[in-house]
Amino acid sequence: MTTALQQVVDALQAAVGRQSEPVTYDVEIGHIRRFAEAIGDPNPLYTDEVAARRSRYGGIIAPPTFLRAFPPKPLPLPEISLTRRLDGGSEWEYFEPVRPGDRITVVQRLADVRLREGRLGTMLFITREIVYTNQFGQVVATQRSTGIVY
Amino acid sequence: MGKVLYWEDVTEGQEIPPLVKHPTTQQLVKYAGASGDFYQIHYDKDFALSNGLPNVIIHGALKNAWLAQLITDWIGEYGTLKKLSCQYRAMDLPGDTLTAKGRVVRKYVQDGRHYVECEIWIENSKGERTTPGAATVILPSRTNPLGV
Q1: Does A118 touch chain B (CB under 8 A)?
Q2: Which of A46, A72, B24, B80 is the most exposed place for a label (fewest CB within 10 A)?
Q3: Band of the pLDDT at B145, cuts 50, 70, 90?
Q4: Which one of A90, A93, A139, A140 would you mutate to disrupt binding with B, by most B Cβ within 10 Å of its Cβ?
Q5: Would strands B15-21 and A85-94 be described as parallel, antiparallel, or unpaired?
Q6: Residue B32 lies in a domain
């Protein structure tokens, strides 16, 4: 590993715990519909106002991974010379449904930084914890998302 | 809206009905638009090749969405998805047939709620598990049908 890369890793590890500025998004019914269609999920809870109204939820809700469409603001982090990136995975926890008309505020926190030797060479694993809060101050979901740069 | 899956009717080791997907490059473009993830490895083949990839690759988060659908289709409206995780261990390509699968690992009651834990994964057409994960759900119980 180069000294330059080690310096980046050290700087990133020193930044663990740092949070992004909040950003707030409006949940639009047409966006939920488009997202459900894009993932190929015909669940009527996402698109059928009549069926959803009669359901336990009393109206349309968003699919579980819809919140991916609401990215947090970037973390103020040092420049990384590695330009290729991959998604490593996600861990979601759900607390409240997301509905059309909701206003969702998104904040991320740098949770973990580690280097690993992988198939594609030296890879940097950067894990963020993202918290999604609605207009009532309820945390609707959290996502622990790991990105890989190499 | 469909049948109710009760906690009592789930057994450890039980398989979840699989969900088959036939992803296309068009679907990747739609997902890019709907999610706002415009990283070019998912729709620009030249860019993907120059990044050392074999082709454009499927968004990990799209596979995550299929694993969510696997679970929500199975538990129905009265089940609640509490936790969902997956790791993108290998790339998947449009044109392949991918199958989301799962199996019940454990069921338990805690604080009056009826939980089921599952292992879930996406398998490519060679039978390789490219995307292993886990899900935890709360199901209605016959003793407390509304206690979800």
Answers
A1: no
A2: B24
A3: low
A4: A90
A5: unpaired
A6: no
